Fold these 3 entries.
Entry 1:
Amino acid sequence: MNVQPDLEFIRELKTAGGDTLKKCFQCATCSVACPLSSDKKPFPRKEMIWASWGLKDKLVTDPDVFLCHQCGDCTEKCPRGAKPGDTLGAIRAYAYQQFAWPKGLARLATSAKNLPILIGLPAVVILFMWVLSTFIGGLSPVEIFRKQVEIGHPQHFWDFAKDGYQYFFGEWTFKWYGKNIAFIAVIMGVSSLIAIISCWMGVTRMWKAMVADMEIKATYRPSLWQFISQFLWPSIWETLQHKRFKDCKTNYDRVSGHLPLVLAFIGLFLATCWSLTKNDILGLIWPSLHGPMVWWDPFKLIANVSAIAMLYGIWILWKTRRKMEAEGRASNTFYDWFLIWEIAAVGITGLLAELLRWGGGFPLTGYFVYYLHLISVMMLFLYMPYTKFAHIVYRTVALCFERYRTSSFVQ
Ligand code: SF4
Ligand code: SF4
C-alpha cells in the first residue's frame, strides 16, 4: 500500500488537540476500552494509525469518528498517554471545516486568535442595524430612551420592567408588526439560514463522501418516509435520549451536564417558537399581542427554567472539562472551550438582562447587557456549523448512515 501522508493535515490535528497522536504504539487498549466500539468494527485504534499516517480522506469519511462522543474512557486507559479521544475530536473539528460552507467563516471559527473577529462581526452587524433603525420610520431607540426611560425619574422607574427590551430598535406606528421584532427577525433569521444551509451542505457532502469511500451500492432507494422512519428518527431519538452517553464510565458526570443543556435548548426553542407565533403571526391579527411576554406566561416560565438549566448544565461541563485537563485526560483546545464559552455567555447575559429588567430603574445597563446577549445568540447561530455544536448534527447523520449501511437497502 502506497501511503501519501498529508503533512499539513497532521500539523492541523496536532494544534487542534491531537498533539499526542504520535505516541500511539497500536496496542489496541483504547478499542477494548471504548464502550461504543463493536467487535466487527473497532475504533479508535485504526483512526490513530490513519491519523499518524496523515490519511485525511479516510478519516473524514469514517462514521466511527463521528459516533465517538469524547467520553475519555480510551484516553484514561491508553498506556502511552496518546489521548485518542482528543485526537478523534481534532479529526471532527477538521472534518467540519472540510464539509462546511462558507469555508472562510469555518476557518475563522477554528482559532482563539480570531476571537476579536468572531465577536466583532456580530457586534458590528447588530450595531449597524441599530444605527439603521434610527433612520427607518417611527421613533429611534435614542428618542425612546429619552422619552420613556428617564433615568432616575421615579415616575418612570417601572416602565423599563413593564416594557422590557421591545424598544431596543425603536418603535414605529405600523401596528401589525413591531419594529424590534422586524430587526431581530432579520438578524437572527439570516444567521439561522446561513447555519441551516451550511449544515445541509456539510452533511450532504459527508454522506456522499461516506457512500463513495465505502463503495456502497443501494439495492433500491428508500422512500422519504422509509428514510425518516427507519433511519433518521431513531437516530434523532437516540441522540436526544443520550443512550450511548450513559455507557461511558470515566466521565459519566458529563451526562448530568449534557442532559440539562439539551432540555434547556428544547425549552428555549419552544419559547422562541411561541414568541415568533405570537408576534409574527397572531400579532398581525391582534396587534395587542406584540411586546414581551409577562412573567406568568407559561412559555416565559419555560424560558426562565430553561435558562437556569442551561447555566447549570454548562457549569457541570465547565467543571468536568477543567478536571479532565487537570488530570491530563484531555487537552486544552479552542474547539472544546469555544462552545462552552458561547453557551455560558448566552445564559449569563440572558439571565442578567432579565434580572436588570425586573429590577427596574437600570435601563442603560440593561440595554447594554441585552446588546451583549444579542451578540452571543447571533454567535451561537452563525458559528454553529463550525464549532463543537455541529457534532449534534453530524453525529445524528453518522448514526443514520450506520443504520442505512447495515440495512437491507444496501448490498
Ligand atoms: S491510542 Fe493508546 S491505547 Fe490506543 S492503540 Fe494507541 S497506544 Fe494503544
Ligand atoms: S472518547 Fe469515548 S466514545 Fe470516543 S473513542 Fe474514546 S472511549 Fe470511544
Entry 2:
Amino acid sequence: MTTNWQPLKTELAIWRSDGLQLPLWWRDDDAIAPSSQLDRLATLASSTGVPVHLAIIPDATTQALADLLNDGPVFLPVVHGFAHKNHAPGGMKKSEFDASRPREKLRADICTGLARMRTLFGARLTPTFVPPWNRFASEHLSELTRAGYRAISTFNPRSNRFATGALEQINTHIDPIDWHGSRSLHAPEFLIDHTVALLKNRRLGKQDNSEPLGLLTHHLVHDPAIWDFAAGFIETLLTGPAHVWTAAELKWGTPE
Ligand SMILES: [Zn+2]
C-alpha cells in the first residue's frame, strides 16, 4: 500500500511560502530494556537525524538499557511514571498518578523513580515527566516542580504553556496506533488529515505553534505498517519547515 502524503506536503508548502517554522519532536514510550525493536528505533532515529525521547519506566528498567543509551546520542531518556501501574478506581480511565491517591504516595513514587533514573542515566536524563496513559492529577502537579522537573508531556495540543508554575507542557499530538481497534496502524489518510488539521490550526493562530509538534510511538508493539508510517511521517515533515526540538535544552529546577 502506498501512502498518499500529498495533503501534508501541500500544507507544508503553505508554511514555507508564509515563512513559518515548525518545532518537531519525537517521544517513544514504555522502554525497559534493550530489544530488537529498540535497535530498529535507533536505526530510524539515526537515518532521519531526529533523536528519540525514550520514556523509560523507572521501576522496571535495567542497567543494560543504561549501558545501551550511554553508547550513542540517538536517545534522550525521560521518566515514564514510576511502575506504570494503574491506581484509578474501577471503571475510571487508567492513571498511575490519580487524584484518588494520597499526595504522599504520589510524591514517594515521583522521588523514588527519579532517584533510580538518575542513578542509571545520570546527566543524560532530561527534566521531563511522562505520566503513563498521559494522565496526571492536576491538583498534584506541583509535586513535579517540587522534585525539579521542568516539563510534563501528555497528549493533545496544550491550552496553556505552563501546567503549573514553571512546569511547561510539551505534549505529543500524533499517535499512529489504533489502540481501541486493530492495534495496528490507523488509516494513513486519517493520520495525515489529523496532522494537516493540527498544522492548519497552528498556522491560523488557533493553537500554540511554539509548542513542539510531537510524534508519539511505542516501539515494542510496532508492526511493519507502523514502522513505515513513522519513517514516512518524519521524512515528509523534515522536507517542510520543521526543525528538531529536544528536551536537552531544559535545565533541572531546584528541588524543594
Ligand atoms: Zn506507557
Entry 3:
Amino acid sequence: MGALVNVQGLTKRYTQNDVLAVDHVSFEVQEGEIFSLLGPNGAGKTTLISMLSGILTPTDGDATIGGYSIRREPLAAKRLIGVVPQEVALYPTLTARENLRFWGSMYGLRGRELRARVEEALELVGLRERANDRVERFSGGMKRRLNIAGGLLHRPRLLFLDEPTVGIDPQSRRRILDMVKEFNAQGMTILYTTHYMEEAEELSHRIAIMDHGHIIALGILEDLRRIVGELETVRMTFRETTDLAPLVANIEKEALARQVTTTDQQVVVLTPDAAALLPSLVTLVARHKATLLSLDIERPDLEAVFLHLTGRSLRD
Ligand SMILES: Nc1ncnc2c1ncn2[C@@H]1O[C@H](COP(=O)(O)OP(=O)(O)OP(=O)(O)O)[C@@H](O)[C@H]1O
Ligand SMILES: [Mg+2]
C-alpha cells in the first residue's frame, strides 16, 4: 500500500496578521493508516487540514491526495476526503436527519442515494434512535458524533478528524475513539489531529508532532520515545525471601544496565534500551532461581518527547 496523501512543502501565511501558520511542511500518509498530528493550540493543525481539504489556498507547496494535486485537481482530490471540522457545524433547530440531508446535498447526493447514505451515517455513529430530535436538544458528545456522521456521507477513502473529542465527557470520547478504530479497521485512512497525547498514543500508526507551523518529529511511537534519550526504568519486584545480592551483582555486569538499585524486594534498573536488556534480565532471574512477582517497564511518553524538543509542555 502506497501513500494516499503526499504533502510537499505546504505553507500558509495569513496575510491579515502576517502569521506563518504552516511553514513548508512535508509528510506522507499511507493508505490504511491512522496518522495523527499532535500539537498544542496554534501549532497549525487546523490550517494544515483546511489546505488539504480545499478550504484554504496554500501560500506555497502542494499536496496530492490519491495522486490528485489539491492545487490543480481540487475537485478530484476532494471527492476522496471526508472532513469533520473542529467547530461543530450543525443547525440547532433542524433534526439530526435533516442536518445530514443538508450536508449530503452539499456533497451532491440526491434522492434515494442521499436518503440511504444519511441512514447509513446515522447508524455508523449510533444516532439512529435520535434521528428525529432537534440538534439543540443533543449533548455535546452527540453533536460531535453527528458532526462525524457528516464527514462520512459520501463514504470517503480518507477521513480528516480535527480534534473530535475536545470538551466532551469521557464516555463520549471513548465512543469516538472506538469509532475511529472501527472505521480504520474497515479500511478507511484517517488523518487525526489532537493535543491529547493519550489519544495520539492509543490510536496512531504514526504520529507527527507539530509546533509553530513545523513538524518537529515524525514516526511510530517507539521512535518518538527514543528521541528523549532518557533512560527507561525496569522495575522488578521479587518475593521477600529471595536473596537479591548475587542477582544484582550479575545484572550490574550487563552493559545496558546503567544503574541498578535494590530494596528488600525490588530491583530497579535504568537502561537506554529496556527491550534489548529484557532477555538477559529474564535469563539471570531464572539462573538465580529468584521468584519474580512483577516486572514493569516505565517509558517516556509523548509529553516527555514534546518537552524535550520544545522546552514547553503540550498542555496549556
Ligand atoms: N483565519 C485566520 N486568520 C489569521 N490567523 C489565523 C487564522 N486561523 C489561524 N490563525 C493563526 O494561525 C496559527 C495556527 O492556527 P491553527 O488554528 O491552524 O492551529 P491549531 O493547531 O489548529 O490550534 P488549536 O489546537 O487551537 O485548534 C495561529 O497562530 C493562529 O492564530
Ligand atoms: Mg485547530
